[in-house]
Amino acid sequence: MISVLGTIFYALISFVVIVLFIIIGVVVFVVTVPFDKNRYVMHVFSYVFSYCFMKICPLWSFDIEGRENMDKDKPYVVTCNHQSMLDITLLYVAIGCKWGKFVSKKEVYRIPFFGWVLWARNDIAIDRGASGAYTKVLSRGKACLKRGISIFIFPEGTRSKDGEIHRFKESAFSLAKQADVEILPCVMNGPHDIFKGMLLRRTKLQVRILPPIPLNEVRELTSKELLQKVQTISEDKLREMRNEK
Fold this sequence. Notes:
Blueprint: H1 2-32, H2 40-55, E1 60-65, E2 77-80, H3 87-95, E3 100-105, H4 114-120, E4 124-126, H5 133-146, E5 150-153, H6 171-179, E6 183-189, E7 195-196, E8 199-200, E9 203-209, H7 215-220, H8 223-244
Parallel strand pairs: 1-9, 2-5, 2-6, 3-4, 3-5
Antiparallel strand pairs: 6-9, 7-8
């Protein structure tokens, strides 16, 4: 009964929040885009929306640790495991208002509102069927990092169907090497368990921001070695987080 009432309450309140933010977002976009080429204002708007959208659910609690591992004045390639369609909003809550662009597959941009926000922020879309798609992503990613804008990547490439961490792809680690920046690994647990059919579950959403991979290691290790290192520490941290629950 609690999950039924909680789901109904959240559906109603989130609808109101989304409609309100669509109206405000259109105004903010139109007013700021002409002089805000990097879309920083839209980034702040997205953070505020994500915080409100996630925090209003009475069935979710948040357990976030490791913000001290992040230098807010330094750009990173940020990696995270991928468990649900709400992972981007949860990362916003965890990371705070750190400036960054998300790398998402093109299909995500077709999702009402959430896809519109990614488009309005001028985030990086991957058209996986197009020739040279990853070359374009690397090029845009490096340009952003040079301007001090972090890049957020889910290195599994798609959502995990079972909540486990699956094989990482190499592009995030190639980007870090080419841009000569540190890698900031993040691990989340809980988003995979949010839904039970059409109902919301009472869920503890955990995010851990791990110590960054230092620049000397990014330079010395190959992309594949960096991939394996980050995947291993991410898997170890996920097991540790599950034991905490």
